[in-house]
Hints:
By secondary structure, the chain is an alpha/beta fold. 49% of the residues lie in helices and 11% in strands. It is built from 28 helices and 19 strands. It has an 8-stranded mixed sheet with strand order 14-13-12-15-16-17-18-19, sandwiched between helices. Helix 4 packs across helix 5, helix 4 crosses helix 8 (236-249) and helix 10 crosses helix 24. The two termini are 49 Å apart. The model has no long low-confidence stretch (mean pLDDT 96).
Amino acid sequence: SDSPTIMNVIHFELRDAVAVIRLDSPPVNGLSHAMRTGVVQAVRRAESDAKVAAIVIVGTDKLFSAGADMREFGTPAVLAEPMLPAVISVLETSTKPVISAIGGTCMGGGLELALGCHFRVATPGAQLALPEVKIGLIPGAGGTQRLPRLIGAEAALNMIVSGEAVPADRFAGTPLLDQLVHGDLLEGALSFARQVVAEGRPLKRARDLTVVHAKPDAYLLWARNSVAAMSRHYPAPLKCVDAIEAALRLPFDEGLQAEAKLFIDLYSGPEARALRHLFLAERAAGRVEGLGRDVQARDVNQVGVIGAGTMGSGIAINFLVAGIPTVILETRQEALDRGVKHIHDYFEARVKKGKLKAERAMAQVSLLKPTLSYDDLSQADLVIEAVFEDMAVKQSVFETLDRVCKPGAVLASNTSTLDLNKIAAFTRRPQDVVGAHFFSPANVMKLLEVVRGARTADDVLLTIMQVAKRIRKTAVISGVCDGFIGNRMIGGYQREALFMLEEGASVQQIDSALETFGMAMGPFRMSDLAGNDIGWAIRKRLRAENPLAAWPSAVKLADRLCEQGRFGQKTGTGWYRYAKGGRSALADETVDELVRLHREAEGVTPRQISSAEIVQRCIFALVNEGARILEEGIAQRASDIDVVYIFGYGFPAYRGGPMLYADRVGLLAVERAMEGFSRTVKEGQAYWSTAPTLARLASQGKTFS
Ligand code: NAD
């Protein structure tokens, strides 16, 4: 009789005397405006139907709701009534029992909706979370007020401030969970509903409970101190504590108002805006422009890794953890053994730390097949090469792969600096060749630059993007150029740091200015970690290739350092010195002396350089190169560049990446600062010409985003 769907996102159905409201809006049952409207209409319909004695709200077994529909952020729909608090109020004030049946993911607004129901049943493995803190917010639809009433202030704060998911069975015995459902979720929920009706149980409302705590003052003081220590630069975690304090001290409705105010303050603040940008940027990065609708990824069930060095062994770990059988190949037994040992050590350490069960580790390690023979690669669907960074070596490897790999196998190179198109041309199947540039340590760093060669096939690109998801990497597509997106941009950043060292700043002053800005590591500490000899080797090669080229005098500083064998952490000295086996960078007078002598020899009178100048010159150098990268179509979109810098280079997430940062500063202001540098600083003429795209956007009053 009735139409079974409401607003296209909800199925409404009567099961005897129980109205079932099924949320059905793939992929995440987001609480879009249509969904919010639909829930209200469905509840109203159930209320007005005399046959209905109870209401069950359910999603699928895998998904109740993942919360707000992030696609609505920044559009009027996000503020269109009914907003979530109004929807929840309709549920809470319903005169008929409302039961949420939670299977799978129940996050953010989805959980807040469930908390507004009178009863909750869930499958044991359902995952409950309030992850708003991860995008710089607090729950804003009563979550911070209802959750402490249901599970206690401390457990609620832990959940809200961490944003981590908790399996439903942990809530057994609390007012949060009325019943665990083993077996079919909907059937379990229906029988629970009938029981509630039969017993005439009073409706339970979280708002009617009070939060009790034996020592609220002491607890809040402790919570604030520990949260503050962990959340420098991020305002949301401390606001979580404020919200819990409101739940402890205020009547429910006043608590809701306090929560709403905290939420709104955060929502419009720069950190939350940056984190929302990043959330959307990460998703956008996975989309490949210009891909036909009919393009399908190839199956990847077996992987080969060539080279078991630093990168190869780390790359292999990713695949083993994802449960994908992996062959790892070396030329010499010792090198193979070393790589395999590194892999085993990794799993052993995870087990020792309690992060991984021993059997699971065993199962994952057993997916590894070490070999010296290319015969073992004949069945591989994807091969990733991570051998020495030397074109001749790459050539021999790719020629061999071309001979032994099955047709359709994807052939990827982890090269950082070599021309992917040349590598592809070593094979008779350049369409199957793609770059997969991992970052070190490859099993830890989230970023993967996927390098699209001139002839890389669309389905190969798509395959790598999907593989990236399986191994939990954030993939960004880069065109072929020297250094791809990330390393190409870092060149200018390091150059400016070196120039300022020559001009008068100290190593520590430069690093500390950028670390205060939020970079995980200043340029000199970063260079010590990566190895100063890498740049030295590149410079030596370039000089040999082009002996007449002129180099800025500041480069001598880096050369002198390397001539003294100060390669960085691995040799115990670099721009800093390191205690034996230690990682903390200690100031070293030898370096100050080296710098002093250099300035003297070059006739440089050192000047005071402000932290503001240090930050601007290093960060705007990133921005300017980023603009060129966009212009040349090397990056698909500005937000991809932000993703590269946040996930691969320690750029502060709360600033949203270099391109968003430039947007915030204002592109006209960025351009003017750069013009200033071009006139005033040494070598400014040569290095500070504004990228045309930046100049154009600045003059039009536009932004990168
Ligand atoms: P590495 O020296 O640690 O490892 C290279 C391994 O390849 C060695 O174990 C060597 O025995 C093996 N090998 C050499 N020739 C081989 C061949 N013909 N067949 C099979 N194995 C062979 O070097 P790495 O740091 O792991 O770098 C590997 C690749 O990854 C390079 O292309 C490098 O540019 C790139 N890369 C390195 C980093 C990094 O930070 N180290 C980051 C990104 C990309």
